[in-house]
Task: structure prediction
Amino acid sequence: MPDDRPIILITNDDGALAAGIGALRKAVAPLGHVIVVAPTREQSATSHAITIDRPLRHIEHEPDLHSIDGTPADCVYLALFEPRFLPRRPDIVLSGINHGPNLGTSVFYSGTIAGAREAAIRGIPAMAFSAPVGVDLARVADDAARLAARLLMSEPPIGSAALLNVNFPAGPARGIRVTRVGRQIYEESVIPRRDPGGREYFWIGGRVTETGDVEGTDAEAVGQGYVSVTALALEATSPEHRHLAVHIAGLDPIA
Ligand code: MN
Result:
């Protein structure tokens, strides 16, 4: 009998054996044929990098659980274009559950979101899941599976594929809100130190100091205890600054 269950590809940026991806894999198992292709080691904050200057090694941990020693985008790329990983093109791609939120400006740094974005660029509906460290992952994964089931059942939009960024609050959710990307303000910290050999090195990247609790944003919703669902655009052209590009190019209409 042919297996006509939906194909669900899962990746993440915390590593194929992380607790968050394990919980998601288990929760979505009833929805289809679930295949994990995820990084061998943690790749948080690698954004949408792909590895083109060294070989990518593959480990099959068990049937339908693969790791690649690359980035989340590498994993999705390989899963889609190397036939051994999936029986056919996936119906949806899920990324996460990330160990930590991906709110506001984090959408630019997140490997979790990039894994989902790599699929959306290829026309496959994709959803990224993130939750604060220390949440009840089994509970969050059940909520994530309900959203994944809805995405599977949804009529695909005209044009580019959907890319949804989902963030869960720390405790049980009070509800769910559709939001826009907010701003997160980080400490912008640089710590210079010396290694035991006397050579200087730096630690960069501060904590979030302000979530910019602006109405309607992802950070506000999660801060108030709601699940946040944000539709992210694949369109990179800014209409806001087109006039400046026209000016820089020297193409202003003569006044
Ligand atoms: Mn991560």
